[in-house]
DNA sequence: GTGTCGGCCGTCTGCCGACAA
DNA sequence: TTGTCGGCAGACGGCCGACAC
């Protein structure tokens, strides 16, 4: 992944710094491209950094597992409590893949003790924009033969209104991507039956971004009446190629040595978090860690639920009365939603491209160190789990405490407004409905 | 740079290993793409590894200089004498950029002492193929309007012979690139005046490799009657983007820590050498190091010559009688060539895309440590130089002893067959002629 | 409501020799 | 000897509604 532009998480859109070569990435768009499951800790907050998880991401990026005969860094604990000094959003200049650069400073021993006593920071704000849509591209969308078929409700909600008195109604749309590039599209409402289409300009975009059927595009209509445009590539197998800048061994040693040096001297160090390259969320808010580790009781045999992003969205039958629950975030506040399944009725819940169904439920089968020799007493992926369904083979057999939601205990997270699905949906919240309701979810 | 395929330097072409996913790169083609100035030490030989130079390459790849407040590795000397256990040639799957992966093992203290006593290995063999041509692409070559104009003598030497009885003479060429991909071209001899052209298939190649005017393509006709096809991209400014796998600081720490660990334990470590990404040749044959450091006398004021790769090839007038000299290599043997310039006559010497003229001559202005604080007593770029001509600004102000050829002393290198240009050129040697002679150099 | 197709037209690709550097 | 151009024919891009799921 090669980076071109960057932005501070606190700066706005389209602001070019005085250096001229560094652009600021739009935070809304970055989060939309990253997906609803990805959130970044707040600048200034305290976080927990897991060298193990970082190592996993590097291993995924280099396609190479950690070597056995490695130098040990006995002074480096499996988790470092750090102050998060800076978060910078990046996007790959070639692929638009998002990543975040974080500057961390390990807390001193005294500060670490205080960390557990001081009032915890609120959870991170996931900045999923409300006025947007995301569509997985079809073969027709990516073919050179035609344009892009815009889902009707999406076009009406996200695009500027057309003058339907015209025949046919049409306008020029200008959208900007993560790199602040401008893309122009002819938006037309025609055909029998009538439909929204992007024609002129669409194929240029598809070929420039090298989109293929299965990839997703998303449009955002933000508060400044700007149209933003992002992509999420389908997870294609074996796309990760080893880099040739540094050997994977040296990279592993480098991340460990850098963290160990920073921990020993309480100095700052910098990491890259590639949320879509690997599922290792190795920097998490301290409060999330404390809640999960010290305020949640888990035991073998306990049932849990976990959120995943999936490509498909098949409908399945519910075989038992069950509780579905979900964290939704809006403006720095977290909402806990729960409701009941009724046996025999088909359910499938979809927010954007993200599935929430019982394939992602399981049972805790054990709690132990993932790597007792190298990382004893680590909470990183300390929970062994069994998944309910046959797709379990694709799912990791180990998760971390803070990734799962135990179903038998009430959530310990600050629940500002517990909601039930049957209540009217507050406007401004991300839409989240069953299939029978109107929503903007595609597919 | 992301790698797909690899090969041992000792294996042949097109041999797929049993794993099935690792292909073997053709060594001839790799060296042709790397250029005549790039040579790799022999597997099994002893080499000198310079962490400083490695650090420079990483800095060039990450676009980031080394940070000031870095952890020190006082146990790591500025040069490590190593055994070279393995050399693997790679090529970037996206750009075809070549690089080499080397596995090094630092010698123990006793072995290091022996290294200076034992007979030195012969110099490395630069494997530039003899039967090949390289052409810099013109605007017409890369335009969609037409095909590729093949220089006549190149086509006649490198391509399989056409049947000139046919009208027009034509054939299908099949060439393989570094990744063993097959490219088919229609080779036709037509037009008025007659010329060799590649038509059908050429534009597919140009767009697949994303070639632009100024890039070079090269064809090799090897001993197995296979046609090989490589590219050398023009050095475009600012093409290097920082990677987001690991922070540049961590990469620097990683390479130092990996080398220090290997040196402390006499264990193997792995590095990547990107010859076209940066001019840091940080692994050199031990014999080259010993000759330069211990058997060559240099002093301030001394004149020297150094070889460079350039994009242009302008003819210039020689203003004084001068000695041109050059190392040529063939089958593990080095040849020293020298001849005299005559004032007032235009000279330009070109082997392939490589220029040898007096722009690359200079004077030694000082000898001192490049980084006295971090790397005291290092020979890496210890020679401060002044270049003769105005292009000096683009040239590095510091070079290493083994990169330059002092002009006032006879070379210390084993000179098997000192040649003069006026002698008949031995067949099998790389062609190297003045402009008035026939040769295969283009431009 | 939307994915894919046939139809149709216009642009661009790509092969040719002319011509000049 | 070879880089670029005009000419020309055919392929493909790309806009349209039809139709089916």
From TrEMBL, chains A, B:
Subcellular location(s) of the protein: Nucleus
Residue ranges of every copy of the TF-B3 domain listed in the record: 133-235
Top-rank taxon: Eukaryota
Subunit text: Homodimers and heterodimers.
Stated family: Belongs to the ARF family.
Protein purpose: Auxin response factors (ARFs) are transcriptional factors that bind specifically to the DNA sequence 5'-TGTCTC-3' found in the auxin-responsive promoter elements (AuxREs).
Protein's name according to its UniProt entry: Auxin response factor
Native source organism of the sequence: Salix udensis
Full-protein positions shown: 1 to 443 of 942
């Amino acid at each position: 992944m090669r980076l071109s532009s960057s932005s501070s998480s606190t700066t706005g859109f389209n602001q070019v710094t005085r250096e001229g070569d560094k652009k600021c990435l739009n935070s809304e768009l970055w989060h939309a491209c990253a997906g609803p499951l990805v959130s970044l800790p707040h600048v200034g907050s305290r976080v927990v950094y897991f060298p193990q998880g970082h190592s996993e991401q590097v291993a995924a990026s280099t396609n190479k597992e950690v070597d056995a005969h490695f130098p040990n860094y006995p002074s480096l604990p499996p988790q470092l409590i750090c102050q998060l000094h800076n978060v910078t959003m990046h996007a790959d200049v070639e692929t638009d893949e998002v990543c975040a650069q974080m500057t961390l400073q390990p807390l001193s021993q005294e500060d670490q003790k205080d960390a557990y006593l001081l009032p915890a920071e609120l959870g991170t704000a996931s900045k999923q924009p409300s006025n947007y849509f995301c569509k997985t591209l079809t073969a027709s969308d990516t073919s050179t033969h035609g344009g892009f078929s815009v889902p009707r409700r999406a076009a009406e909600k996200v695009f500027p209104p057309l003058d339907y008195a015209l025949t046919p109604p049409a306008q020029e749309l200008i959208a900007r991507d993560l790199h602040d590039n401008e893309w122009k599209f002819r938006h037309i409402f025609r055909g029998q039956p009538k439909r929204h289409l992007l024609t002129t300009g669409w194929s240029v975009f598809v070929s420039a971004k090298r989109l293929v059927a299965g990839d997703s595009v998303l449009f955002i209509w933000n508060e400044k009446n700007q149209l933003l445009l992002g992509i999420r590539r389908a997870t294609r197998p074996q796309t990760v190629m080893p880099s040739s800048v540094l050997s994977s061994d040296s990279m592993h040693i480098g991340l460990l040595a850098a963290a160990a040096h920073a921990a020993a001297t309480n100095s700052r160090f910098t990491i890259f978090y590639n949320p879509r390259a690997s599922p290792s969320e190795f920097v998490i808010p301290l409060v999330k860690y404390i809640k999960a580790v010290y305020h949640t009781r888990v035991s073998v045999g306990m049932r849990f639920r976990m959120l995943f992003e999936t490509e498909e969205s098949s409908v399945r039958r519910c075989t038992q009365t069950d509780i579905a629950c979900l964290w939704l975030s809006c403006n720095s506040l977290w909402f806990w939603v729960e409701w009941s399944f009724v046996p025999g009725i088909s359910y499938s819940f979809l927010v954007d491209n993200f599935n929430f169904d019982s394939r992602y439920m399981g049972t805790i089968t054990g709690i132990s160190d993932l790597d007792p020799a190298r990382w004893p007493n680590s909470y990183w992926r300390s929970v062994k789990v069994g998944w309910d369904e046959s797709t379990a083979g694709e799912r990791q057999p180990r998760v971390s405490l803070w990734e799962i939601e135990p179903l038998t205990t009430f959530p310990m997270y600050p629940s500002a407004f517990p909601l039930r699905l049957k209540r009217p949906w507050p406007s401004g919240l991300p839409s989240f409905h069953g299939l029978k309701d109107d929503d903007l979810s595609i597919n």
